[in-house]
Automatic annotation (TrEMBL):
Taxonomic source organism: Ferrimonas balearica (strain DSM 9799 / CCM 4581 / KCTC 23876 / PAT)
Identification of the protein by name: Flagellar basal body rod protein FlgB
One GO BP annotation of this record: bacterial-type flagellum-dependent swarming motility
Entry GO CC: bacterial-type flagellum basal body, rod
Entry keyword annotation includes DNA-binding: no
Subunit comment: The basal body constitutes a major portion of the flagellar organelle and consists of a number of rings mounted on a central rod.
PANTHER family linked: FLAGELLAR BASAL BODY ROD PROTEIN FLGB, FLAGELLAR PROTEIN
Function: Structural component of flagellum, the bacterial motility apparatus. Part of the rod structure of flagellar basal body.
Assigned keywords, A-Z: Bacterial flagellum, Cell projection, Cilium, Flagellum
Length: 116
């Protein structure tokens, strides 16, 4: 009998993909903090999870929303360094949490396969 890994692992695998994509977007914001006219972007993680829960398709071309800054800058750059750093750190912690859940699922499957 074959095991459907997508069903066995639940949403945890896709959650990691979302977190990786968000880390890329946030690191791009951080790298462009001094670029005139750069518009900060983000990944709407809750919207992606809602789509996933509803069974809707989420392709690899994620929509990136532009962020409205708390304070405007003279050069039109919307990256707020402190805010981006905090979001990046929070995303890293959330990634680690998702990875822990995924590891627990895999360990559970391994025990089931071994008959323990």
């Amino acid at each position: 009998m074959a095991i459907n890994l997508d069903a066995a692992l639940g949403v945890h695998g896709q959650t990691l993909d979302f977190r990786v994509e968000r880390a890329k977007v946030l690191s791009g914001n951080l790298a462009n903090a001094e670029t005139p006219g750069y518009l900060a972007r983000d990944l709407d993680f809750s919207r992606l999870m809602t789509q996933l829960e509803r069974g809707q398709a989420t392709d690899r071309n994620y929509d990136h929303a532009y962020r409205v800054p708390y304070q405007t800058s003279a050069d039109g750059n919307t990256v707020e360094l402190g805010q981006e750093q905090a979001r990046f750190s929070q995303n890293a912690m959330d990634f680690q949490t998702s990875l822990t859940f995924l590891n627990m699922k895999i360990q559970g499957l391994q025990k089931a396969i071994e008959g323990r």
